[in-house]
Design goal:
The protein is built from no helices and eleven strands. β4 and β5 form a beta hairpin.
């Protein structure tokens, strides 16, 4: 059993920055590929970013590429999403997810085994 906690959400003006964190317990983070997804009201959950076990490979959705950075600190069992130049369309509940599979398939939500409860990010114009 893996527990994921996601502090860092909040309200920010357009153009501002936020850093989301995902702290894992129950399993060493280095054994888990990690990802971020988000869901806006009335929309399906969408992929935001993913990172491999070692952090050597990352994937970003086109909508956030160039503005968001995913990283991880396995020694702290924590994964991060640094968000800059935020736009109102980034407003959503952001979810941290962990993948126990051997092969890395970051964009597929069905491959993730554990999910955080989500944190609200609201970007005002």
């Amino acid at each position: 059993q893996v527990q994921l906690v996601e502090p860092g959400g909040g309200l920010v003006q357009a153009g501002g920055s936020l850093r989301l964190s995902c702290a894992a317990s129950g399993r060493t983070l280095s054994s888990l590929a990690m990802g971020w997804f988000r869901q806006a009201p009335g929309k399906e959950r969408e992929f935001v970013s993913g990172i491999s076990r070692s952090g050597g490979s990352t994937v970003l959705a086109d909508s956030v590429n160039g503005r968001f950075t995913i990283s991880r600190d396995n020694a702290k069992n924590t994964m991060y999403l640094q968000m800059i130049s935020l736009k109102p369309e980034d407003t959503a509940v952001y979810y941290c997810a962990a993948d126990t599979h051997f092969n890395w398939d970051p964009q597929s939500a069905t491959r993730y085994d554990y999910w955080g409860r989500g944190t609200q990010v609201t970007v005002s114009s």
